[in-house]
Amino acid sequence: MGTARHLGKPVPAIGGERARRRHANDRLHSRQGAPLGNGRKRGEQKQAIGRSRGGRNTKIHALADVKGRLIAILLTGGEAHDCPVAKRLIHRVKPAKRMMGDKAYDSAELREELDKRGTKPVIPNRSNRKQPFRFNKRLYKLRWRVESAFNRLKDFRRIATRYDRLARNYLASVCLVAALVWWI
Predict the structure, then answer these.
(1) Quick one: what percent of the chain has pLDDT higher than 90?
(2) Strand 55-64's sheet: what is its strand order?
(3) How does residue 183 score in pLDDT terms, banded at 50, 70 and 90?
């Protein structure tokens, strides 16, 4: 029976080395049971799926040109904030004269980053900002072009309702639709 029950030496032809490493009782095997994790499914972070008020969803972050055509696109989970992703997006394109954004992009770090690149921010101030910045309200009224670009993306059902499991497939669909919308 082997060394597990302390009844003698294991028989060399039966089991050998493998029999000695086993537990005396197979129910106590160290690798059995549910994996110890933090309660989420594996790979959700990598697939740009996140939790927000509406449930699990994906956020599309994009930069658009003057005509409302998308030129840089990134995906994040639904709980991601806009400012850190905006920094990544602006490094993907050439510096522009101005950048428009809504109040979610009002941060000192993003404004500093835009100043380094020689871009003037057209971003309204949040209500809790202690030192408000000036911005061109006339130019800010043209932000509807960016919103209409997102609305054209959402006209495609595959984009509006994410059917793809993998983020790379969903991003490919978004890029394909953005290319189609570019020419329409």
Answers:
(1) 40
(2) 50-52, 55-64, 70-77
(3) confident
Number of domains in the chain: 2
- Structural domain range at position 25: 1-34
- Residue 23 pLDDT > 70, yes or no? no
Residues 13-28, mean pLDDT to the nearest whole number: 55
**What single-letter amino acid sits at 46?**
K
User: Phi and psi at residue 118, in whole multiples of 5°?
Assistant: 80, 25
Asked if residues 10 and 16 have their Cβ atoms less than 8 Å apart, the reply is yes
On whether both 23 and 65 belong to a single domain, the answer is no
Q: Are residues 8 and 76 in the same domain?
A: no
Q: Does residue 42 lie in a domain region? A: no
Q: Give the mean pLDDT of the chain.
A: 81
Query: How far is 158 from 153, CA to CA, in rounded Å?
Result: 9
- Residue 8 domain flag: yes
6-17: per-residue pLDDT in tens? 666 666 665 555
What predicted TM-score, i.e. pTM, was given to this entire model? 0.69
